């Protein structure tokens, strides 16, 4: 993959910015059988989120090439606009990705810009690898989408795992929550999104939400 990234310096810098690995949380028991009302209550609360922001870390693992790359991310979401800033603790901001209903734009630390009609198209052109960005803002908060199958849940009604077909590939999603956390709206501590060729791990260090 690195040879392709020479076309666009920001992604090369991002993918070389290793050093913040994300350990998988301990196993958490889940089941297909759960109180339906708890599931509905949690999903209804998530549906009321008009905007949120998250700061944390993200890792991309390309299985066939055995490449593991990680970086820090600050993600701000609104229904018609998203902004993601990627950074490294020593190198500072590496890139900014903005996504609206009209287009997606990636700008590197030197001001070089590239745009496409959608974030998946832009990322596939730059990396090049398919990332299911069109649903990430929902999966990141633990929200169900209509395409999800084989869902399992935790006892409090939050999503534990699911599978989905995206870009003609079978993807598996797993959600992890802080067991000791007490909150009116549980949000994930980690989300893992995995296909036969790619694994995306996102760790949320801080959430901010508004209704």
Automatic annotation (TrEMBL):
Primary location group: membrane
Pfam family, one: LolB
Record keywords: Cell outer membrane, Chaperone, Lipoprotein, Membrane, Palmitate, Protein transport, Signal, Transport
Residue ranges the record marks as coiled coil: none
GO cellular component term of the entry, any: cell outer membrane
Signal sequence range: 1-28
Entry keyword Membrane: yes
Membrane topology of the entry: Lipid-anchor
CDD domains the UniProt entry points to: LolB
PROSITE patterns listed in its UniProt record: PROKAR_LIPOPROTEIN (PS51257)
Localization annotation: Cell outer membrane
Any one of the GO BP annotations: protein transport
Family note: Belongs to the LolB family.
Quaternary structure and partners: Monomer.
Name recorded for this polypeptide: Outer-membrane lipoprotein LolB
Gene name tied to this protein: lolB
